[in-house]
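thought: user wants a sequence for this fold. calling inverse folding tool.
action: design(structure=
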């Protein structure tokens, strides 16, 4: 047998062994922990960005839409949470299986953190946010 005979089998084994997170794509709609929101990740200009497209509780206790009330920039506090940009500045292509160099905004505390997106298969996305050396990681699940 020639080496070319083994090529299709080798390719199939390689794809099964290494095809998980390295080939997964963060583009799509993701459910955040606790099912509180859905975030759509899509291209924006030459980067990837994410915005809130669904909220489990879109209104406050007065029945009005929730606003970005905790934002440190007072001029942005009137932005509705629904549609809010959450992820910004991620490259279109991964760096070693992860999308690095972006930022994540947390509307619960009004702060922005350095972030990494790392697919852990086709339907699971690890989202990491850091300030200084302190990091928090969440697992987001793809919305079908």
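)
observation: tool returned 144 residues.
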């Amino acid at each position: 047998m020639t080496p070319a005979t083994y090529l299709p089998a080798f390719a199939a084994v390689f794809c099964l062994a290494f095809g998980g997170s390295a080939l997964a794509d963060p583009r799509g709609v993701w459910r955040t922990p606790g099912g509180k929101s859905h975030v759509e990740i899509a291209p924006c200009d030459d980067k990837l960005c994410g915005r809130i497209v669904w909220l489990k509780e879109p209104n406050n206790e007065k029945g009005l839409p929730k606003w970005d009330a905790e934002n440190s920039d007072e001029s942005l506090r009137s932005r509705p949470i629904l549609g809010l940009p959450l992820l910004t500045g991620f490259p279109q292509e991964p760096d070693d299986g992860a999308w690095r160099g972006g930022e994540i905004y947390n509307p619960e505390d009004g702060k922005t953190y350095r972030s990494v997106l790392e697919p852990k298969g086709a339907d699971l996305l690890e989202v990491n946010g850091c300030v200084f050396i302190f990091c928090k990681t969440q697992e987001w699940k793809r919305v079908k």
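thought: summarizing for user.
answer: Here is the designed sequence. The domain at 3-142 is CATH 2.40.128.520 (Lipocalin).
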